[in-house]
Amino acid sequence: KQEVTQIPAALSVPEGENLVLNCSFTDSAIYNLQWFRQDPGKGLTSLLLIQSSQREQTSGRLNASLDKSSGRSTLYIAASQPGDSATYLCAVYRSGSEKLVFGKGMKLTVNP
Amino acid sequence: NAGVTQTPKFQVLKTGQSMTLQCAQDMNHEYMSWYRQDPGMGLRLIHYSVGAGITDQGEVPNGYNVSRSTTEDFPLRLLSAAPSQTSVYFCATRPRRGREQYFGPGTRLTVT
Question: How far apart are CA A73 and CA A34, in angstroms?
Fold first, then answer.
């Protein structure tokens, strides 16, 4: 059974710091991994999608890496801003399954 | 493009009542899914559809019914609401290739 873990559950940092968010998964037979952002009371916004054949993806100040063999992904946020405050979730698609398996998320607070 | 829309945004039901949560998309995506999000449990797949006329069960299907008569719409029916169905419900869509998921804004349901 695929399990996705995000540690820590919450993080509070001052503005300007470079951040690393961690995601680990137990089954390396994944099709892809997707990082989302969720603001309070809102839906999920897709940030980055990494196919299983890729090692990393970049979008603006965000960079996500994937290491299938170790079952890990990291989301790097450069020069954090108060507007980055949100809950960040990672999710994996197992090969041959339609179910997207989510971690429980990490609540990020960036203080001005 | 509206993307993925969900109605209503909020709903309060009494135990035993039935209702339908609506989901519509204008991206011409074949795949549509329903997830529920509960504190401490993360997001869990309820039902999904790989195209008009085709549906299948996810991880937590009991108490819910779906059908898909068009590509655009994928309603979720609660047959007899129970307090355990109090949750936030998200509809998601994805194209056949790539598997990047797009989520709607959610419906917050309370069953008393």
Answer: 10
